[in-house]
Every structure is written in C-alpha cells, then in structure tokens.
Amino acid sequence: MKRLAALLLIATLPLAACGQQAEQPAAAPEAKPGLTLNDGRLVLPAVKGNPAGGYFTLVNGGDKAVTLAAVTVTGAARAEMHETVGEAMSPIAKLELKPGETVEFKPGSKHVMAFALEPSLAPGGTTEITLTFEGGDKLSAPLKLEARGAAAMEHMEGMDHSEHMN
Ligand SMILES: [Cu+2]
Description:
CATH class: Mainly Beta
Structural class: alpha+beta
Distance between the termini: 70 Å
CATH topology: Immunoglobulin-like
CATH architecture: Sandwich
CATH superfamily: PCu(A)C copper chaperone
Bound molecules: copper (II) ion
Largest sheet: 10 strands, mixed
Number of helices: 2
Strand content: 35-45%
Mean pLDDT: 82
Shape: globular
Helix content: 10-25%
C-alpha cells in the first residue's frame, strides 16, 4: 500500500510542478491595505511628443502614514510627480499621506507628468499607473485615456516642460 502511494505521488509530480509554475504571478505588485486610487485619468497631449498629465485621488485609509516615492505609467517611458504653484512647476520627490488623508492630483496642482508616450495610448482607452511607496509597497490602478479638453489646454499652455526633458 505504502509503495503504491509513493509511486502515484511520483507520477503526479511533474504535472503539479507545471501547474504551480503557470499560476505563479509575474511580479504582481502587492497592494498596501487601506490605500486606494480613484478617478484615475491621463490627459493626452494635443501635440505628439509632448507629455501627458495624470490625475487621480489617492486615499490613505490605513492607520499608518505612507510616503509616495515614485510613479510609473504603462506606455510612458518616464513619469514624474509635479506640483504647480502659480506659474511655476516643480518636481515632487516624495509625498507623505497621514492616516486618513486624501490627496488630489488635479490640473493646476499636484499632477503626474508622463513622458515619451507610446502611440498605442489613444483617447477612449485605458492604461495603468503604479505608485511605489517607501518600503516597497506598490499600488496599481487604471487610468482612463482622455483627449486634452479646453479647460486642460488653458492650464497647460503656460507651462514649460522643456526643463524636464532629457
Ligand atoms: Cu508637470
């Protein structure tokens, strides 16, 4: 009896190993409990080659402060956090959210700037934003792709992003 069981086990091993490998997630970002990103949208530039603006609402519903350290946008070679103050704009290196705090990324305020966009990013589609927090936690959420509207145009027109282009 014991011998038969052992043989059966050996026979099923390669199958089990295959199944396991297939189910292994390919470095899926671990979502931090209590953190949510809502109303994500990426406003595409009117002129090809210009950066896109990323906007969303980030809620820290957890009981610990978190520090947002980096952003990436699928389909953009590079993404940065910026803050517009008056006419000027400066990069945000890190952004702390206290427990229960909500931060809005919106035109004329904090925003994400996405550079070197792939042509596949078109209005009506979606892409993904991934936020990386200090300590390595990540949060991914969809961004709706939008054409630049009149209101956004007015806001962006006065900005010079050339200093951010490498
Ligand atoms: Cu900017």
